[in-house]
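Forwarding these from the shared drive since the link keeps breaking.
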Amino acid sequence: MATSFPEINDHPEELAAVAAFRLDDSQLSLAVRYSISEEVSAGEVLFDIGDESGDLVISGTATLEALCSSPAEAREQSFMTYGPGQFAGELNLLTGQRSSLQVRVAAPGTIHRVTPESFRRLMAQETELSDLFLRAFLARRRLLRQATDQTLRIVGDADSAMGMALRTFIARQGVPHLWVDGASPAGEDALRAAGLTTADLPAAVMPGAILPQVTPGTLSQRLNLAYRRTGRGTSDLIVVGAGPAGLAAAVYGASEGLETVLLDAVATGGQAATSARIENYLGFPFGLSGADLTARAAVQALKFGAHIASPCGVVALEREGGSHLVTLVDGTRIRSRAVIVATGAAYRALSVDRWTELTGAGIYYAATDLEAQAVAGRPVAVVGGANSAGQAALHLAQYADGVTLIVRGDDLGARMSAYLVERITADPRITVRTGTEVAALHGDARLDGVSLTGRAGGGPVHRIDCSGLFCFIGAQPATSWLSGVVLDENGFIPTDRELTRDDLDERWKDLGRAPLPYETSVPGVFAAGDVRSSSMKRVAAAVGDGASAVRSVHQFLALAP
């Protein structure tokens, strides 16, 4: 995952030391209990670049070497060497992502293979080993992301809407890659070598595959990060939406023994991952980014055995017999005993001409480092009057040549925390315009300016230069795909005590009970986080919702026939 963990220092020497961790005799003896031993010969390839996630391989007496190679250069580069007591594998053993490395035998001897099923059992049962493996995997993933040679190269325009969508997906998934500007000499060379033209941009180039006009969905399929059926025909729990509520539900569901599948239409993190800084989350007095928080949560869910798939949009939910059927965008249908809807709410678009056209090409709904770097050194504007807009303005001020904060209301402190108001008003890089709205957008292929006016069109129109417009207004629940589940007048989902007698059909009479906490009008379907009617719309509250909803899932499954 694209994140920074305090347990692992970013200093290259310490990172390398963690990545090359060697099991002591007692740890090795314990790990070997989950393995199958075999003799291997020098030169033997244990797994190759592009292979589906396979076994954890522990060296007994053999010496193994991991190599990475670039699709642009016909050469191999040594990544790591594993001697006795060390192990080959990285985070893809948890994510299921195709291998970025080739591992072959440098010196003959004994190895111990831990199959995926045994590895998940080891991770669930052996706390010390689980932590040691996880730390090494995270360090290796970070080293892979820093490597000069990359198995995956994306050639494209970072300023285009599709380019930004790809970069967002890759960053949130922590996929090792190299981004190459399609208009640069290196980009032209990469296209020529792959037999592509600028009409094929964006393109993904990797060993064994060239993907022209690649999308996050097609790239996810190729990397093996899309949905794959689990070993069982019916899951215990499907969680739809991988924001804080969905991630918490996946962590608690998987850690408590439920076969848990987590699906998200974009990438793990949800709206929280768009936040540049969260300072009021318990236990983090110095704050952390939303992407950092949600990446940690995703690793936790994977550690406990949850299956995470993205981008993986859900288009329908229906009940069939004693279980629920979730239908994906591609028509795949997944069966589950229980479902938690945690699809959250999205920021609204402004009713301004060319908004859709310029989204991703100057208009953004996130203000992470990725977006901030895209507008560095240029003037930007932020629309919104709540905490997300305030945090975005402060973060962008570190990169941009001035930030204009556009607030429709007359009082900046009406919906924004006092500590943010104080910082914003004291920052000379930020200009606050209250009682103001965006009247028009300017620019050809990219945004280069906006026109502002008084609220409801009052007052003169004033144009400002603007290379990035960051929108953080309102919230629309992501429930348009739901049918059969009662929604309130704003599209949010009422649960348990909020449901009236008229909301509950004959099925509830047959069950002889009232809805459980977080249960919707459909038995066995629960709602958590921002999508729930009475939720607090805060990260901490969403995490609590996800964890609490799992408790009700256990109650439901215990009561189910």
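-- next protein --
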Amino acid sequence: MNNINNGKSEKEKHPSIFEPFALILNIVTAVIGAVIGMQLVASLGITPNTAIIGALIAMLIARLPITIFSKYKSVHRQNLVQTSISSATFGAANSLLIPIGIPFVMGKPELIMPMLIGAALAMFVDAALLYKLFDSRVFPASGTWPAGVATAEAIISGDKGGKRAALLGVGAAGGLLGSWLGISMSAFGVAFIGNIWALSMFGIGLLLRQYSIPMFGMDVNQMFIPHGFMIGAGVVALIQVTMIILKRKKTDSGNGSEAAAETYTRSDKQTTRVLGIGFVAYLIISLVLAILGGLMTEMSTGMFIGFLIFAAFAAYLHELIVGIAAMHSGWFPAFAVALITLIIGLLAGFPPVALALLVGFSAATGPAFADMGYDLKTGYILRGNGQDKEFELHGRKQQYITGMIAFGVALITVMFTYKGFFASGLVPPVDAVYVKTIEAGASAEVAKQLLLWAIPGAILQFIGGPSRQLGVLFATGLLILNPGAGWAVLVGILIRVIVLKLKGKEAESSMSILAAGFIAGDAIYSFFSSIFKFSQK
């Protein structure tokens, strides 16, 4: 792809986020993204994908007849802008506002600041871990990362034009029209580029969640079947990840295994060390959170230690599950997996204050991890899919720094605005679900259901293996109430199989661009429709 840039000098040196104008522009877009994310997650319960909006802003800036703006004809500068606004949106909304809304709804405002500190630390660790794990065996750059592909294709088409732009435009128009008609075009587009096995299980899970009552006379959600499935699949997924990263490289035996291993920019040894450091970091954050939240006076010494270990492990597992789901399907059930953590905490007998901090901490991990994965996938494509390793690593680092600055902007924005949001009754709806769950408590019957359904979840994940992630994706589908997405995924897979059968491998490139268009159109429609709905409130 020749790194999609404007000449040899661009290949040798990636633009820096610390260029004065670049830094100012990215801070401004981060503030916009943070405010938009907070407003929409508090009023509508959703966080829009603003990456493509950021890319469009950068493209428009590049076309203004002012010399300083002409630099933004570089796709790499456009990529930094989309990274900034996207990171700030998910960071402010998902990683910060949702966690601090929980103590507010509980009527314990004194816990808001401890929760904000813990959530902020978790957010920064979250993003740092993905940066260190991106393009490893566990989270390969070759993974689907659908939102990242869509943003990259939009930027490339804006830069190159021609047939590629036309095809993307057709896909985007289809995405806008389909979304207007109520079709989940993101799910439809993902079916064209993702792992067929994983997405098939995702689609089946979505449909079973919706039609379990008319088909089987039972509500799978009320029976905690999705939660049990995810627990079993998640534990096996963690074991599989451990097996992958602990596996020693085989000596060169002529089968190409070592050559394949060398294509990753993060070695198995680095991955092992990063994951170990990540768990220790979460353990330290859980300790800080527990001390600031006054849990030492709420629990015995044994329970306090148990809480620390469980909170760190839950955050760690939550991050991996959300990252795996996001990489394969473009969906990450962060709210639902945090709820699973809360239910297990209830069964463990932790007091209400500890449970509030636990679920907030868990909810803070995952979104920044997944979003950083999308952003780095976009950059990976724009920089030539890793053909120039030095250029790729330098560009990836610039994106990481950009994202961390944006997360910092998100933190400052939340600190100065959350009181106004809460005073106006703007609290993320999911927080009420968490608090009601804490108030309702858990029973032996719930524990029985979780253990019962964890078994098939574990078996399904084991059968599919780490490359297909059948258990995690099936459980993800079961946790999401969106039957339209289920039909869209399965129909998309059917069309993909038919086209590949008729046209062969040469159709894959065109299908990938169309898929990116569908996802981009859906993202644009969702963003502006969300803004419109918010303005009507």
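The chain has a mean pLDDT of 85. DSSP finds 22 helices and no strands in the chain.

- D.
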